[in-house]
Write a structure and sequence with these properties.
With 387 residues, the protein is an alpha/beta fold. The protein has helices spanning 52-59, 82-87, 104-108, 110-114, 119-132, 137-140, 150-161, 180-197, 208-214, 233-238, 243-249, 253-258, 280-288, 333-343, 363-375, and strands at residues 12-19, 29-36, 41-45, 67-72, 75-76, 89-92, 168-172, 200-205, 217-222, 226-231, 273-275, 294-298, 304-311, 316-317, 321-322, 326-327, 347-351, 357-362. Helix 5 crosses helix 7, helix 7 runs parallel beside helix 8 and helix 14 (333-343) packs antiparallel against helix 15.
Length: 387
């Protein structure tokens, strides 16, 4: 048996789920018991052939289990006609899996039409979902998949999966075919969408970094369709259940854990500031009151705009330098460290959701925050009990 969460009313419950394919002696999925809480993203991750995609396909009965039970919101899915079950579950795969001969609007409208929605309601739903995934309805509604980039196709795939407002979404390597830069942007966009819609999502990937970034919980599959650990990303990185999990995570777990701490929720040190357009006397006064080697420039609305270096032994204010980078409230300690190294900067301004200054992260404070973060980790907390 694999660990089950403490949720008494999960959206998805797998009980003793087993799948043998014809002619195979080893199970593709072997006695899996696992709960997926409502409104969470649960990541299935593991090496190729470990049963993670098979498990996902069992949930919406694309394939049938050899034994075991699958419950969706308390209902045994084997008691629900397959066509009705799949209308309750959104499904997206690599490159969106769009129908090439249908327009973007028709792709998104697939399930609403099956549900018997009227034309007006369908049109409103299509436009609302295109807005949600960041595509202008007027521009994209009548386009065909071949007229979209890979990232745009994936956005439409997400919109189509949400078309009938399903309880559950299943996502099979949805960003796997996207280049790294667009993949990161799509991951961020999807997390933004999830914060609004709060769907229950099962997400399959082979990438542990994607799992850590995207998941509320992670199930790490091993050979033979067994789950070695099912827990939060933080607990998995801090306390791997066994050598298999430790090897799968690989080196750099401490650095990955930095990605779980957004700077927006941290107490940040202040920095000497001056108003944009201030005269030399005001700048000299600010310089005299600090031992920092730069002043941060703020505009009339409190937005950081640049840095003023303090030059020479007399700490004379120099010419204002542009602000090349900054951190937002959702950026993590990992983002801070990465940006400092890539920008060759020892200090970064941090802003709130409106772009207003709320503090800084410098190398000293970053070290302090990382050490405090490590000290607060639940290293000795027991893992979830086995069912």
């Amino acid at each position: 048996m694999t660990p089950r969460t403490a949720d008494d009313h999960p959206m998805i419950r797998l009980e003793g789920l087993t799948k043998y394919y014809p002619g195979q002696k080893q199970a593709a999925v072997d006695g899996l018991t696992l709960d997926v809480p409502a409104g969470e993203i649960v990541i299935f991750v593991g090496p190729s052939g470990c049963g993670k995609t098979t498990t996902m396909k069992l949930i919406n009965r694309l394939i049938e289990p050899t034994s075991g039970r699958i419950h969706l919101d308390g209902t045994d899915v084997t008691e629900v006609p397959v066509h009705l079950l799949r209308r309750r579950i959104g499904y997206t795969i690599q490159q969106g899996g769009l129908f090439p001969h249908r327009t973007v609007a028709d792709n998104i409208a697939t399930v609403p039409r099956m549900l018997g929605w009227d034309k007006r309601r369908i049109g409103e739903r299509v436009d609302a979902l295109l807005d949600l995934v960041g595509l202008d309805p007027q521009t994209y509604r009548k386009r065909y998949p071949r007229q979209l980039s890979g990232g745009q196709q994936q956005r439409v795939g997400v919109a189509r999966a949400l078309g009938g407002d399903p309880q559950v979404m299943l996502m099979d390597e949805p960003f796997g075919a996207i280049d790294p830069l667009n993949r990161d942007a799509l991951q961020n966009e999807f997390l933004r969408i999830q914060a609004e819609v709060r769907k229950t999502i099962v997400f399959v990937t082979h990438d542990i970094d994607e799992a850590v970034k995207m998941g509320d919980r992670i199930a790490i599959f091993g050979d033979g369709g067994t789950v070695h650990q099912y827990d939060t990303p933080e607990n998995i990185l801090a306390d791997p259940a066994d050598p298999f999990v430790a090897d799968f995570i690989g080196s750099g777990a401490s650095v990955r854990r930095l990605s779980l701490t957004p700077v927006g929720g941290l107490a940040l040190p202040e920095w000497p500031t001056v108003a944009r357009g201030s005269d030399q006397a005001a700048r000299a006064a600010a310089a005299a009151g600090t031992d920092r080697d730069h002043l941060l420039v703020l505009d009339d609305e409190g937005h950081p705009t640049g840095w003023i270096p303090l030059l020479g032994p007399e700490r004379r204010p120099g010419e204002e330098l542009p602000l090349l980078s900054r951190l937002g409230p959702d950026d993590s300690l990992f983002d801070a460290l990465d940006l400092m190294l890539s920008a060759n900067s020892s200090v970064l301004a941090v802003v709130d959701g409106d772009g207003r200054y709320r503090g800084v992260v410098d190398m000293d404070s970053l070290r302090t925050l990382i050490n405090a973060r490590a000290a607060s980790d639940p290293q000795d907390s027991p893992r979830m009990q086995e069912a």
